[in-house]
Specification:
11 strands; globular; alpha+beta; 386 residues; two-stranded antiparallel sheet
Length: 386
């Protein structure tokens, strides 16, 4: 069974006003003084799961991100989704406890609801990014959920990348959680997805065909001088340059950790399904990058409240129907991994109570205060809203 790890980019906000606070360094200092949280492992886990738990695998950390108002959590790899959810919550709890000592709260939101200014972490690489990309760098305060799914080889990984392209916009719609930017309603469910496309490498990709072609493109991008290094290859999904994984980067960070687990389970289902299709010699859907960009835009604009573009017909259809098609597309893999019931139940939850963007807007409509939106996000991120 493939292992799955999750990285979450979380915002640090003032405990009273809700505005982002530049306390990442202090938060990480306090986190370092505490014992590293144990990520509980489900009793039915196999050898790979036990290896991950023993510390012989990557992951399990709190780290700096680009801005001083955010930090990133990183779970160890898991095969069991219940254990993965426990790991996500354990690292959130560690971040929340440390941030509290620094006078801040932690929220899982794709963008800050309240206005924020630049506060770049003073690492040489980040300072080079400011010099090279200007406002694109200084305004980049966003929160994503990156899912790493293990692969057997780069060839299999590229076979997967070529075959999951059409479904990534559906993951964005489900996870959309960034309706506000600089204190204003953007009318988008995920404005993070709009902020990201300002980077020269961000967004969907063409089909590569082979690992050789993938690596040739990445090498050419770096050699062009337009980007600084391989870490700046911001494709919606890519081969990780650190781990033997496919890294799916399209989702907003979710307030509810259960939604994070849903995204992770769907990502593994997509990788399993695509790898099987690649192995069987099945061709990927013939989707142009231009059409994929339209699909991503539609998902970022409307989330699950409007139509999505069907990856098979390229026609608009109700979001619930396209989501159902995604689940059916990966159902065999979900069943084999033991994730089918979890995914079905959580999909129903999202369509009953809404995704993160719908939650944020509902709170603003209720109170009229973006500070209340932030407070509600902090409650949800901590898992204290029942």
């Amino acid at each position: 069974m493939r292992t799955v790890g999750v990285e979450e980019e979380l915002l640090l906000v003032d405990a009273e006003s809700g505005r982002p606070r530049s306390v990442a360094a202090r938060t990480l200092q306090y986190a370092g003084e505490a014992a590293k949280p144990a990520e509980p492992i489900n009793g039915s886990a196999g050898a790979a799961e036990r290896t991950a738990a023993s510390g012989d695998a990557p992951g399990g950390s709190l780290e700096h991100e680009l801005q001083q108002q955010q930090i990133e959590t990183d779970t160890i790899p898991h095969t069991d989704m219940i254990a993965l959810g426990d790991g996500v919550r354990a690292w959130r709890d560690r971040a929340i406890t440390a941030a509290r000592r620094a006078g801040a709260r932690v929220i899982a939101s794709g963008t800050s609801p309240l206005p924020v200014g630049a506060a770049i972490v003073g690492k040489p690489r980040y300072l080079k990014m400011v010099e090279h990309f200007g406002l694109t760098t200084t305004e980049q305060l966003t929160g994503a959920c990156h899912v790493h799914v293990s692969i057997e080889s780069d060839e299999e990984g590229v076979g997967v990348l070529d075959r999951i392209r059409g479904w990534l916009s559906v993951l964005l719609a489900l996870s959309a959680n960034s309706p506000f930017w600089q204190g204003e309603d953007t009318k988008y469910a995920s404005f993070r997805s709009q902020a990201m496309v300002r980077w020269p490498t961000a967004g969907p990709t063409e089909a590569f065909g082979t690992a050789e072609r993938y690596h040739e493109l990445v090498s050419s991008m770096i050699a062009s001088g337009a980007i600084l290094d391989e870490g700046m290859v911001y494709f919606d999904a890519r081969l990780s340059h650190h781990y033997p994984t496919v890294e799916i980067r399209v989702a907003d960070v979710c307030p509810d950790a259960a939604d994070t687990v849903l995204v992770a389970a769907l990502c593994r289902g997509l990788v399993d399904t695509a790898a099987a299709a690649w192995s069987a010699g099945e061709e990927p859907l013939p989707l142009s990058v231009s059409m994929l960009r339209l699909m991503s835009w539609q998902a970022g604009r409307f989330g699950i409240e409007g139509d999505l573009i069907d990856p098979r017909t390229l026609k608009p259809r109700a979001a619930r129907e396209v989501v159902a098609d995604l689940v059916d597309h990966v159902r065999v893999a979900l069943r084999e991994n033991g994730d089918e019931a979890l995914v079905d139940a959580q999909i129903e939850q999202i369509f009953t109570r809404g995704n993160g963007a719908m939650r944020q807007r509902a709170m603003l409509e209720k109170t009229g205060q973006l500070s209340d939106v932030v407070a509600d996000l902090a409650t949800a991120t901590a898992g204290l809203d029942g």
